[in-house]
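Sequence only, no structure available. Ideas?
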Amino acid sequence: EYDCVTENIFKYKVLDETKPVLVIDGELETVYSVNSSVTMPRLTATDDVSQSPETYITIFTPGYKTVVLESGDPYVFTEKGSYVIVYTARDDAYNLAEKTVVVSVE
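Reply:
I predicted one. Tokens follow.
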């Protein structure tokens, strides 16, 4: 007599195609003077699958530099021109939620 025990392990992959919900607490002015210092708005995000979506802020300067900041970080506008600021939330499946604002520095 033989006792036979079978164990089945199933793996499921969740297909996540829904972008997270990005919440921006505060906003920047649309015009600043050179050497103005600002505090970036606080970002939070929720998602239907990922527990803690990543948030970050990307600034594209008039001098073609790219700066990546976290929410609440300070920043100084050091040159005249248009700054493109992108607020981003990314979930574990790399779905993105973004909001873009343009700030002019005179």
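The chain has no helices and nine strands.
Hope that gets you unstuck.
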